[in-house]
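Chain X:
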Amino acid sequence: MDLSVSECIRRIFGEEIYVVKSTPVSGGDINAAFRLDLSNGERVFLKTNRIQLEDMFRAEAEGLAALAATGVILTARPLGTGTDTERGCSYLLLEFIQEGMSAASFWEEFGRALAGLHRQETAAFVKGGRFGFTRDNYIGRTHQSNAAHESFISFFREERLLPQIKMAEKYFGKSELAQADHMLEHLEEILIEPDFPSFLHGDLWSGNFLAGMDGKAILIDPAVYVGCSEADLAMTELFGGFSPRFYKAYQEVFPLPYGYEDRREVYNLYHLLNHLNLFGPAYLSSVQRIFRRYGQRQLP
């Protein structure tokens, strides 16, 4: 909607409500973020970026709403999106989450909640296939295609790995591109088709959840799609990992198939490629190592 931030706030909270104070919030790499104190005593969270990126915020809001609709996991509540021509930005307005202390059972409850999300019925979230999503969205600020596929492996090859590899070609030599081609050609021998599709957060690392005042995990910044549950779990391990209690509780509800540890790096290759494309060659050696591991080995 072409409403300014102030107009959006008045529409949500009442015509007499206005912003008393705007405080920058640090922590994000992609967007500018602010805590807005309102004249009625409430607070909201504001994310802004270039006007041209309004669809990124709209996709984020729809992803949060879809996660919340499952009823099994908490998310930040989206309030509104739009473009503010006076500020020269697009924006996403969210409820402000007052962070609290993690409950004693935080990791166990979080693990069970994620496993519950992965076991939800997914038909409402994808049309024309079993894997994908009802719309494209974004991983960071990178466009993420969610075209429907009947096969997860086909989806992961065509809509995840291939686009990122093509964007990153300038970083690779002939041998690395040959390794990538070999891996993609043999992906059916590396990954597995899940027993059933799972609804995924899509970008689940330690920076994309908070502990609320009730001590429970609240998800933020999703890149949702219907895929293989292992892909979400792999991402949790990419940048340091979660507590062992989280994984134990998750597997009590949703045991991992044999061989997950051998597949984990291929799922995370997608995120490493995206970081390479967004932030540059600091991530190149990690990508090269995975290419060598899966692009040179003898497969059955």
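Chain Y:
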Amino acid sequence: MRWLIGIYFKKTKRMKETIKKILRKLKILTGQISPIRKEIEINYEWYGNKYGGFYVHPNLLNSKSIIYSFGIGEDISFDRAIIEKHKCQVYGFDPTPKSIKWINNQQLPQNFTFLNYGIDSKSGFVNFNLPKNKNHISGSIVKHQNVDDNNIVSVPMKCFKDILNELGHKRIDILKMDIEGSEFEVIDSVLSASIEITQILIELHERFFVDGKTKTTKLLKILKDNGYKVFAVSDSFEEVSFIKN
């Protein structure tokens, strides 16, 4: 009986995944999602679980590599995976109260450093919009359809230049951003910091905004103008990986 139940759930899971892929393709065909395509062919691997992972070009990473991971939530599977494989140094950032509480209850990897502030275009305390769904973790400094602008907390944010000055890094091997729509706001300040960043991994939250496609188009152009090319895209077209050409 158990094996029949197991087969049923496996088939149900595969069916749900198939339906999701079909719906995504329909959204692309109808212009609801930006169809982001690879611009360069290089080796890449998925690091982390399905929910919190990203594609990475692993060939350039080693124990001296520096990783900035913005947006932790309650998932450091990406950070654990990259530390396990390359023994590199990962700095995780998140100002979300639930995330900080979760992190404080975890046994963290030796090479993982957590900082309880987020990234913004300027430094200071800001109003942070908490999610409408109380079961969700991720809030945002940007107002969008998934956050409640009547339920806010004040959190510390720092601009990229100030973060670099505080940590003393002269180059970064990977910068990962899963920051709930703020990626569109901070990308200019990140790229103007005059520091070498080899790979930039971004979860795009185009779906949060009425003008999301316009925001994505602008972000892609900014990265391209700064010498970055897309080397990997997830099935959802949300996790996009760039490398400096």
